[in-house]
Amino acid sequence: MTASSHSMPQFPESYWQEISLPSSDTLTKDISVDVAIVGGGITGITAGYLLKKEGLNVAILEAGKVLNGTTGHTTAKVTAQHGLIYDELIAHFGEEKAKLYYQSADNSLRFIKNLIQEKNIDCDFSEEDAYIYATTDEYANKIKKEAEAYKNLGINGELHTSIPFDISIKQALSMKRQAQFHPLKYLKQLALDFIEAGGLIYEGTTATDIEEENDIPKIITRDGYKVTCKQVIISSHFPFFDKEGMYFARMYPERSYVIAVKAEKEYPGGMYVSVDSPIRSLRYTPVNGEPLILIGGENHQTGQGPDTLTHYQELEAFTEKTLGIKEYAYRWSTQDLITLDKLPFIGPITAQKPNILVATGYRKWGMTNGTTAAMLLADTILEKDNPYQDLFSPTRPNKADPTIKKFISINADVAGHLLKGKLQYLPKDPSHLQNDEGAAVMFNGERAGAYRDQDGKLHIVDTTCTHLGCECEWNHGDRTWDCPCHGSRYSYDGEVVEGPTNKPLRRIE
């Protein structure tokens, strides 16, 4: 643990990543496999496990360490209750597609539960009711509409006028018998089974491009090695290969925050998330016989808004008021991608490239959507029918009116940040930075990003994002440079943390 007191941990660390995971070598030669999977999160590991079970030769390429990205920084709710969604899906797509979406998530919940029971995986799995709640009249009415949608779709739900916390609410809606677990304990077992069956995992291996020869994909790594395969699954969060799909304009990135505490008050069980602003999410996980409470929220578009530490402070204040803090154990943040129509993209990356498959845009519900993606893509490769293929197809038509409005809004915002970053006045000089302080500065007459580490060493980079040229902003909560346009993120010395970019920032000596 990073703290043993009431004070905020100095650096972010996810509780899930306390466990040890198998380590793998970096790719150092050209290889050929049936299926190459880029990205070692819940989708990549689950898809690899399923395909290996069917006897295929599979390799997983991971730029960093497996299960170290969004999957390792989740709140790990295994639920079909994805906020306010079903009334909206019925309005935009009709009851049939809304029901398919529910069934896909419910099917993933049952898949995870059954696999845990079958393999006797010790991963703190527990069935819990899930709740959405509203603190305003406007959103209370939306919850009532959502309850009507539950009824129309045959979802087991119940309206409530209170929840067992010191929170004044107007309305709540529960979905019965959902679940929570320790995601890395669960996925560690799948990864070990995959390796034992002959599956290949290469860590520290960054995929940068895909070449095709007679419809045979060849993945090119940063070190120049090639992985030849029949099919590619891109489960790298943002697709690293996006030459024709224009995914950067069809999704937008959001950051959110989690603190983990031991509380003064007893936790009543269940999983909770508010539907009005500011978002608050609550669940617990058992640690040495005691509940560790995970409180999340504070969503905002990447690279935008106030100092990121204020988001942790807001969660801390909410938790102190609601539960009381006995020990502030962990804090971490994560990034999620949201498609304009709120449905994930799962399937061929474009109609012209059927052998390059993508899974992205889970809208913060990656435990179920990520599992759905793994099963759907495995079925696609194995040429099996899957009822969710059309619903999640990346080439589906965007007929919903809100999609067009959101597209205009998001891309106007990008244009604004592109211009603002170039014109920004920067009075700060890097020589004025204290230890563990970062800022955009003027250096040798140009805009730069400077961070002085805890040992006093100065790290200076060009803040121009290598994706499409927006200027990155300093994120002190995570010590990263974040792009406000499409969500690329870099370490303080310029290495890529998050796509869509796959090129580091230029270092300035």
From TrEMBL:
Keyword Plastid on entry: no
GO CC terms, sorted: cytoplasm; membrane
Rieske domain: residues covered: 425-509
UniProt cross-references to InterPro entries, sorted A to Z: FAD-dep_OxRdtase (IPR006076), FAD/NAD-bd_sf (IPR036188), Rieske_2Fe-2S (IPR017941), Rieske_2Fe-2S_sf (IPR036922), Rieske_Fe-S_prot_C (IPR005805), YhfW_C (IPR038010)
Record flagged with keyword Iron: yes
Molecular function via GO: 2 iron, 2 sulfur cluster binding; metal ion binding; monooxygenase activity; oxidoreductase activity, acting on paired donors, with incorporation or reduction of molecular oxygen
Superkingdom of the organism of origin: Bacteria
PANTHER family: RIESKE 2FE-2S IRON-SULFUR PROTEIN YHFW-RELATED, SARCOSINE DEHYDROGENASE-RELATED
Name used for this protein in its record: FAD-dependent oxidoreductase
Organism: Niallia endozanthoxylica
Lineage: Bacteria, Bacillati, Bacillota, Bacilli, Bacillales
